[in-house]
Amino acid sequence: MIRFLPENTIAELHVVRNLLLAFAGLLIFLGLVFWFSLPDVDYLKTKNPTTTALMEQRKAEAAAQHKKYRIRQSWVRFRSIPGYLKQAVRISEDASFYKHEGVDFEELKMSIKRDLSEGKLARGGSTITQQLAKNLYFSTEKSFIRKFKEYFVAKRLEAALSKNRIFHLYLNLIEWGPGIFGIQAASRYYFGKNVWNLSLEESIRLTAVIPRPLRTNPTGKSRWLLWKCRWILHKMKLYGFISHAEYNLLKPSFNR
Asked: Is 101 domain-assigned?
């Protein structure tokens, strides 16, 4: 025996269906608006940016305090940067850089777990690509919205650029101290030499300050700096980037 639904029930189902379709359409529309609001990164294939969101943020912060602010930054070719410096940076900031597609999901999972346990964005978890996205287009504000946008821009960067180009941009643009952006400017400012003349020790010291560029001087002897340098040195030996002899020769330089 076939039972027919009451007309009012059928009408209610039609209303629910229409509401669900409208909601789905709204989500698609908002998703498209969000996607097309993200910056176009194709120009980075051939052009080096003259400024970044982080540089502009630092300028605004200085202006708000009525302070002068000078930016030191100059471009250097990727092949001019010593191999051991690139290795040190990857070990320290993103060991899986050449394997992932912009996001290291294992690192991201640990980052989210810690953030949730502490109730704030505490752990980094950002890849080199995500750090580049943040430096180019966003502020240093720690928020889930910024991280969400950063994720999608990182995916765009990975789709448009080669790994070496992303790494090249990163090394030339990240902050290395007050007003110091890029590895060449950092090398000139702290050690008075071009990046291609940096020693292994100097490369490790510069790498160590990347997480704390405004609080740490690579030429100093702070407890944190020396610990970070020892950690990087140990990892470079572990991954076979330096020999045991090089490790033993340099290790005393990072002891207090």
From this structure: yes
- Evaluate whether residue 131 is within a structural domain: yes
Q: 73 — alpha (psi -120 to 50), left (phi > 0) or beta?
A: beta
Per-residue pLDDT of the chain (256 residues; tens, 9 = 90+): 555 556 666 666 666 666 665 555 545 544 444 455 578 999 999 999 999 999 999 999 999 999 999 999 999 999 999 999 999 999 999 999 999 987 866 666 565 555 555 555 444 568 999 999 999 999 888 878 888 889 999 999 999 999 999 999 999 999 999 999 999 999 999 999 999 999 999 999 999 999 999 999 999 999 999 999 999 999 999 999 999 999 999 999 998 7
Rounded to whole angstroms, how far apart are CA atoms 256 and 201?
15
Domain of 158, in residue numbers: 53-195
By three-state DSSP, how is residue 175 classified? strand
User: What's the total number of domains in the chain?
Assistant: 1
The CATH number of the domain where 112 resides is what? 1.10.3810.10
